[in-house]
């Protein structure tokens, strides 16, 4: 067939399509000979008959109006007329994990936790001071920070209070409210070690870096020097664009795999010291109170964990047949090496398929093919990381720590499915 013939046949195809689009009028007898599915598929919807919205409608793109319910669930004290520093300190917003797909959280749906609201910082006025046990104190502008060699990494951030251990829970509790204090993004910034070398860090004496934010809470945390020199990032971009204000614009510390609170947002100061700061948020909070009244401090790493994100309490198995069980797994210690699924509360386990590439301290998505016959199920997921650590059952955690602390719960999560296909939050 010659080039011209191809063009001709393509043109003929489009002509025929155009005729089919108005088939009931022009090709009545042909149309009536088609099967019902084809007729249904050939119907021209209303949005194909009119001009769409213009390119100048939203210079910054927005989700479809039909996705308007896919938003963060905002957790804050109910309707006081004046928010006080105390009440606003309790605010957070969870990621809608039950509505998301893949291993990256979109910026507008990344979970939020802040302690004095979100400051609106002018980047031309924002600076980062590095001082303490260094050869020369330096102040960096945003422009200077962006002129250093950049690095791009994908890491999850999880609040240590995500999936609190608390004795009280309800079977109606939703995935998002229980697990949504976690998100995963691709971060761009400078290695902290690059900046520490620039100021001449005194590695003979340095033991900690105190990181301090510019928000009203002056959130501050102590980062062990080994971590600071290894893989911490000072980031200014998230998923390809500047950080959002609620994620620390214009500058944030990322301590890969460590509890959310230490990933200081609105970063303005780094002090190199030989002792931890013993800040309020690492002494009275973000510690793990044990049953003997003592508390663990400096528990930074978020252990291996996973959760099935479909089906959960908001879903229902309405028919028998094939379902794709979906979920997310992560570990603060490295890559996920495997995820196993149990349909019977942990008696039998089979391997799930990892559907995205496992990355160091990032989400990996997993799937599992379920042939549902209308029976009751107890769905569990259990992740193992490359260090060989596997998720424990809740009892294994509470036998050691008791129920005093909400933090660092990486227990196996269960979802029960009854014979009506209804799904409930469950504990095993
Ligand atoms: Co901790």
Describe it.
17% of the residues lie in helices and 29% in strands. It has helices at 3-21, 23-26, 28-32, 36-42, 85-88, 142-146, 175-179, 192-198, 225-230, 280-283, 394-401; strands at 73-75, 92-94, 112-113, 127-132, 138-141, 151-158, 182-191, 208-213, 220-224, 233-238, 241-242, 252-254, 267-273, 288-289, 295-296, 305-310, 321-330, 336-342, 350-351, 353-354, 364-372, 377-385, 414-417, 423-426. It has a 5-stranded mixed sheet with strand order 5-4-13-8-9. Strands 6, 7, 10, 11 and 12 form a 5-stranded antiparallel sheet that branches. A 5-stranded antiparallel sheet has the order 19-18-22-23-24, with no helix packed on it. The chain has 428 residues and is of the alpha+beta class. The protein folds into 3 domains: 3-48, no CATH class; 113-286, Sulfite Oxidase, Chain A, domain 2, CATH 3.90.420; 305-426, Sandwich (Immunoglobulin-like). Residues 160, 259, 286, 299-300, 407-408 line the site of cobalt (II) ion.
In short:
This protein has 428 residues and is α+β, with helices and mostly antiparallel strands.
User: What count of structural domains?
Assistant: 3
Question: How far is the N terminus from the C terminus?
Answer: 66 Å
Assign the structural class, choosing from mainly alpha, mainly beta, alpha/beta, alpha+beta, or little secondary structure.
Answer: alpha+beta
Query: Care to count the β-strands?
Result: 24
Number of helical elements:
11
Strands ordered across the widest β-sheet: 5-4-13-8-9
CATH architecture of the largest domain: Alpha-Beta Complex
Can you say what the CATH homologous superfamily of the largest domain is?
A: Oxidoreductase, molybdopterin-binding domain
**Would you tell me the overall average pLDDT?**
91
Main pleated-sheet profile: 5 strands, mixed
- Small molecules held by this entry: cobalt (II) ion
- Strand percentage lies at 25-35%
Low-pLDDT windows of residues:
1-24
CATH-derived topology of the largest domain: Sulfite Oxidase, Chain A, domain 2
| Helix fraction bin | 10-25%
Main CATH class of the largest domain: Alpha Beta
| Radius of gyration over all CA atoms, rounded | 26 Å
